[in-house]
Amino acid sequence: MKRIAVVGGRGFVGGELLRLLVHHPEVEVAAVTSDTQAGRAVETAHPPLRGSGLRYRRRSELEPVDLVFLAGVHGSTAEILDDMAALAPRIVDLTADFRIEDPALMERYYGWSRDGEHAGAFVRGLPELHRKQIVDATRVAVPGCMATSAILSLAPLAARGLLQDVQVDARTGSSGSGASGGDANSHALRSGVLRVFAPFDHRHEAEVAEALGVEVSMTVTATPQVRGVQTLAKVSVGDVGERELLAMYREDYGPEPFVRLVNSARGTFRYPDPKVLLGSNYCDVGIVADHRGRALVMGSLDNLVKGAAGGAVQCMNLMLGLPETAGLTFPGLHPV
């Protein structure tokens, strides 16, 4: 059994990591940290973990493990990276600290200056695009939830030079703002809304642009759901027809365990819909084209699973030489 530690296990992503890890057949959760909750049972923050016996401890109490997940607040990884590297030969980071390699992009979107040497040591945590690098990596940075959906839905077109001036319309549930999302994320102000909160320059925009190598403009809307992300991108594909586009996606994603092409002629859920993905590690993608040379590319996922903790566990499996799908085969819930 591989010994795993979760640093920052108080928030939604930390809780989702633990939910996946305590049922994982090949790993043992050796430690969960939260300096503010040290000594308390993890189930006080994450009730689905009742009976797990896990208790929070301080980060200073950590002992060596095979791999550590860093799930604290954005900006925290850079401060503790050297300490964590001394405890674990492999690190999977779920904060934004090292998702972007280009220092200029990091400065523009986050206002942070990052050590270029450290940033270059992190592999982008998308197995579908970087599997070989992740297998050999010691440090992996998991992309943001909306970035994951947009990148995976657009990657087949980017690989074939069919993307330019991309506009992404992203919708996200309230859990995307974290367990401490502020007053604007309270039920009274979030329920029933379709609130555009980032007309331009959302931080995930930088990740999508860097990963795909194209200019991207992203607009983000808050929805009343708790979980779920959906991204829609309109692109010009010229004289490439829908049948040919679908063939590209089948070629790229046919062997992938957690990306599914969804484009049905009938049924209620004809296209990617986050409602049917809740709790699962799947990203559903779809593409339709019209007679004017335009295509609509769709992506959906559970922001806490494939968009965060599930994607991180998928990377962990690859890094530790475990079956990639281990602990991640839950199909989701319907109806909810």
Spatial strand order of the main sheet: 3-2-1-4-5-7-6
- Give the structural class: alpha/beta
Unreliable sequence segments: none
Note the main sheet: 7 strands, parallel
Q: Compute the number of helices.
A: 10
| Order of SSEs | EHEEEHEHHEHEHEHEHEEHEEEH
The total strand number stands at 14
Q: How is the quaternary structure best described?
A: single chain
The mean pLDDT is: 93
In words, what does this structure look like?
The chain is α/β, with parallel strands linked by helices and 336 residues long. 30% of the residues lie in helices and 21% in strands. It contains 10 helices and 14 strands. It has helices at 12-21, 77-87, 103-110, 116-120, 127-136, 145-159, 187-190, 203-212, 242-253, 305-319; strands at 2-7, 27-33, 56-57, 67-70, 91-93, 123-124, 139-141, 166-172, 195-198, 216-222, 229-236, 259-261, 283-289, 294-301. The strands form 2 sheets. It has a 7-stranded parallel sheet, sandwiched between helices. A 7-stranded mixed sheet has the order 9-10-8-11-14-13-12. Helix 5 links the parallel strand 6 and strand 7. Helix 1 crosses helix 10 and helix 6 runs parallel beside helix 8. The model has no long low-confidence stretch (mean pLDDT 93).
